[in-house]
Amino acid sequence: MSGIRVVELSAVVMGPFAGQILADLGAEVIKIEPLGGDIARTAAPVGAGGGAMFLNNNRNKKVIAVDLKSAEGQAIAQRLVEECDVLLHNMRVDAIERLGLGFEAARALNPAIIHCSAIGFGQGGRYRDLPAFDDIIQAASGLAGLSTNFGHDPQFVPTNLADKVGALYTVYGVLAALVARAGGRREAMRIEAPMFEAVTSFLLNEHLAGATFGETGEGMGYKRLFARDRRPYRTLDGWLAVLPYTQPQWTRFFAEAGRSDILEAPWFADPVERNRRIGALYGELSGILATRSTRDWVETLTRLDIPCSPVRSMQDLIDDPHLADIGFFTPSGDYPPDVTRALPQPVVFEGVERVPDRAAPSLGADTREILAACGYDQRQIDGLAARGVIHDGAVALLAKTGSSAS
């Protein structure tokens, strides 16, 4: 994406994660922050370079800190939009309109702009003006309610799944618009990437199930995923995930276990009938796997070419041998000295040199460089700093603002 300029007006996870992916792919991403900074900068734990969540969502970007409530600050943002390819924001639509950077205003500034709104809810429905955070979208989309299929109370998935799924949909929307431009389209494009619709689509990909066929269907929910014994299985000394999926894999597993009664059952060779009994089959797995150690099963199942994995903790991943082989956590670039591990862009492009990352910049670090590139001279930049319109990285403002995130 070298040669593509993205102006990012976003905070916390969804917009920043999307912007980081575009930056990882080579785009020049200019993040506009308020004078107090993205609140993720102070989300614990915090190191010398800022909060870990901020560091993991803002690498390879340039940052400019501007008071967007001021007319001069809005003029700076508008000048950046005039010269960019993509405007990416995760603000509510009325808020971006107040800044003079809604779609119509941005199109007037830049007739070829790709204007991407990474928002909570699509603007065509009644939820369009509601505030949205990850927990809210997990509840609204049905994700938090999945656990009720197992007799549990609703539960949030303990990761910012809605934000990150929304970010991935945002990225492919931007990339598709850029492909259209490369194919000759020159007019401005408006993109909406709403979290609610993204996560609903993501969730119902398999769980729409029988509702796909209306009232004649068998109801919603992919039954295999709701089987009570589809879970990590206890072994003699730990936990193991195992998934025989094809008929040969099921056959090899039950042959290893000496279960000729199952292998010879008339329904076993019929995939439709076998799938009807998937819950019972998972129950058999549970009992069989409890008879040996995790290591023994991993060696056996690997020999039988049956997918399996020990259940790892997050701490286990730090020392995972495969991740060590590829240097997964090794910082590449100008990270602060207290950053001993960083996350990479995981997609590998063969034959393309991987350049070192640029760590997430300190607040206002690129303000003067960006303004100079926009045509502001040194006197004008000094004046903006003196009037408090910009923060140029010379003074730490976070402590003054009391900005925080939890």
Report Rg.
Answer: 26 Å
Note the run of SSEs as H and E.
EHEEEHEHEHHEHHEHEEHHHHHEHHHHEH
* Helical content band: 25-40%
Look at the structure and give the mean pLDDT.
94
What fraction strand? 5-15%
Instruction: Compute the number of strand runs.
Output: 12
Distance between termini?
33 Å
Instruction: Please give the count of helices.
Output: 18
Descriptive overview:
Helix content is 38%, strand content 11%. By secondary structure, it is of the alpha/beta class. The protein starts with a strand and ends in a 5-residue tail after the last helix.
What is this structure's SSE topology?
Layout: E1 5-9, H1 14-24, E2 28-33, E3 46-47, E4 50-51, H2 52-55, E5 61-66, H3 71-82, E6 86-89, H4 93-98, H5 103-109, E7 114-117, H6 134-140, H7 161-182, E8 189-192, H8 195-207, E9 233-234, E10 239-242, H9 247-256, H10 260-263, H11 271-276, H12 278-289, H13 294-303, E11 308-310, H14 314-318, H15 321-325, H16 367-373, H17 378-386, E12 390-391, H18 398-401
Parallel strand pairs: 1-2, 1-6, 2-5, 6-7, 7-8
Antiparallel strand pairs: 3-4, 5-12, 9-10, 10-11
Helix pairs in contact: 1-7, 7-8
